[in-house]
Design goal:
Elements (H helix, E strand, L loop, with lengths): L2 H16 L6 H17 L24 H43 L5 H5 L3 H11 L1
Length: 133
Amino acid sequence: MNTDDINLAYKIRHALNENLDTLPASTTDRLAAARALALSRKKPDAPRRAQPAKRPLFDIKALFTGPALARIAVAVPMLALVIGMGGVYEYEQQQRLAALAEVDAAVLADELPLTAYLDQGFNAYVESQQRQQ
């Protein structure tokens, strides 16, 4: 119901209540009988479901139910995959940094011949030196 419907219902209720005292006794008796008849025909209320007891914050038994095990069976491999991919990424980054550090150390120590600096295949030369070691 919108506010207009609610306002109309309040106005009707107010108008009926204003003239309630001026109704004849026969009318009020008929209204009371009609109300009693309507209440006798009313369907019984549906029984209310009992509210479940408050569960503890962390229930160990709930971890071993079917749906929980299914969620764990999906989450564990996905978590292992993410951790594994992160590990591979970190390993590759460490290898790349180690290779760059070796090149920097060789350049700073002047262990490279001058032709290596002029050569376009400098990276190939560095890689070949690393393979020889």
